[in-house]
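Let us practice reading a record.
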Amino acid sequence: MEVEFTARQVKISKVLKTDAADGIERIALVLGKITSAALTFRAERHLQIVDLTLKGRQYSIVSSGEATSQETALRNALAHAELQAQRLRAKVRTQKRVPKVATTDEARPARKTARPTAVDLEAKAESNGHKPAIARAPGKQMKAAITVHSFPGKPAVVEPHILSAAEAVAIRPMTVEEAVKEAEFRDRDLLIFRNKAGEMFVLHRRRDGKMELVEIP
């Protein structure tokens, strides 16, 4: 896949092009194949703006990022596009889960007729002039078959699979806003960072999707 770069009154370095290509490949892992990608770098007064357009066979994503530096603007544009890609993937998965249509009375198969009871058989035999046969001896109860279920023993204990995550630690100091954008850019639910004062914090995503900040004493 080729990425089209456009510069308007600004210069695009090789590092920015490499970062943009890596971010687009990460978005392609979420949605699938991307047929075309276009990036436009421009400046307005003191702001650097990056416009990103991604097109696939069945989708189109347009995002934009603004910041005082081109690196941060590109990071914001990629994070916005990746968020749109995740929402689009969740929407497609929801549409595929079509509920089963309830069958109508006409479509339902005809119920089997009820098994005749002992009273019905006796009445039928008397109408035909025959003496009904005794199904069982009086005073005796018929035995019923009982299904016995066997339950499994103790469940097998599965040891947790532990992986090292060096990317979860930010090297340079940053603010809380920068940490949130960095976590979105890295596609991580956990990020450990320090602020400029040297205080350490843990930023993680809860099950409800909200980001929670924990200060390490």
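A brief commentary: The two ends are 47 Å apart (CA to CA).
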